[in-house]
Amino acid sequence: MAHNVIIIGSGPAGYTAAIYLGRAGLDPVMVTGALTPGGQLVNTTEVENFPGFPDGIMGPELMDNMRAQAKRFGTEFIADDVTAIESAGSDDAPLYRLALSDGETLETRAVIITTGSNFRKLGVPGEVELSGHGVSYCATCDGFFFRDKPIVVVGGGDSAFEEALFLTRFGSSVTLIHRRDEFRASQIMVDRAKENPKLTLLTNTVVTEIHGTETAPAAPAAPALNLGGLALKPKPQVNVSSVSLKNTVTGETSELETAAVFVAIGHTPATDFAASVASRDEDGYIIVDGASTRTSTPGIFAAGDCVDCVYRQAISAAGMGCRAALDAQEYLSE
Ligand SMILES: Cc1cc2nc3c(=O)[nH]c(=O)nc-3n(C[C@H](O)[C@H](O)[C@H](O)COP(=O)(O)OP(=O)(O)OC[C@H]3O[C@@H](n4cnc5c(N)ncnc54)[C@H](O)[C@@H]3O)c2cc1C
């Protein structure tokens, strides 16, 4: 039996689409992704810019809430990855067949792709351990946490410069580190960076390790819990404190103190599995028709970070998920 609509991916875009489609009575099915259901926000700590949570909310809790809301309106979840989409059915009654990584196939009248994008990692020691504790991949999301502190940005493209310039609003200083002596960024961005007194450009340099030190729990420290004589002290946090650097020309090494490392070396949209049904740009982002979420194939829609290489925020992904649901709803009623 063919489903009405299958949503691929379980980030803010996917869950929002599911909530709308569930409330429209379309019995959505969601293939959540096998490894990271909940999407990128599951890997972060506090989210302070998603409306509706005046005191902020932890990323995993926000995604649990979205899942519960989608479930409440009847979404069926399948914890797997889609490996391919192909057309099945006829011109009059188009159907799509989705292959899952466990070998199963699903048929559906419409598809919403919300598979997000993966930020590229530096791959140096300390990066994974300190992610969310000073290592970040999103200046808009986390810049605010590093007011009056030294900040490092790694990258040499327009995004890295945009992030570095944005971060000068918060940090006491911003050092942009790039492995070559020339930048991929446009000249106007480089000129703006050079004019900014808070920004230092460090070329021919790579980060070889990110270090952290223990920081006392936020003051006032919570009183130690006493469970039957067993005193449990709040666990100190380990936060970024410095980076090790290496000059790519001379081989010289050095240390630089910093409270944050923003990695801005690009994103890879998770869209390869959809290549045969949805046109993509040269970086792999799915191309949609104007302000809609329609892809190059009728009945296949796309939303969130797998389309959007500009805004990349939970709320913008959620907004686009809403639009995809409404576009799919209209398509299914034709
Ligand atoms: C560390 C970090 C902190 C951030 N902090 C903030 C913040 O504070 N505020 C903010 O607004 N934004 C923040 N962002 C950005 C925000 O997380 C993203 O913009 C948002 O999650 C994008 O939502 P999405 O639904 O498009 O995709 P994602 O959240 O990326 O979700 C994609 C989903 O697709 C699934 N998937 C991928 N491939 C497949 C497949 N083949 N089959 C099935 N499923 C698949 C994945 O498992 C995942 O569930 C942060 C991002 C990161 C990385």
UniProtKB/TrEMBL annotation:
Q: Does the keyword Flavoprotein apply?
A: yes
SUPFAM superfamilies of this UniProt entry?
Answer: FAD/NAD(P)-binding domain
- An MF annotation (GO) of this entry: thioredoxin-disulfide reductase (NADPH) activity
- Which reaction does this enzyme catalyse, per its entry? [thioredoxin]-dithiol + NADP(+) = [thioredoxin]-disulfide + NADPH + H(+)
Annotated FAD/NAD(P)-binding domain residues: 4-321
This protein's record includes keyword ATP-binding = no
Q: Which UniProt keywords are given for this protein, alphabetically ordered?
A: Disulfide bond, FAD, Flavoprotein, Oxidoreductase, Redox-active center
Name one matching Pfam family.
Answer: Pyr_redox_2
What protein name is recorded for this chain?
Thioredoxin reductase
Q: What species was this sequence derived from? A: Bifidobacterium felsineum
Lineage per the UniProt record: Bacteria, Bacillati, Actinomycetota, Actinomycetes, Bifidobacteriales
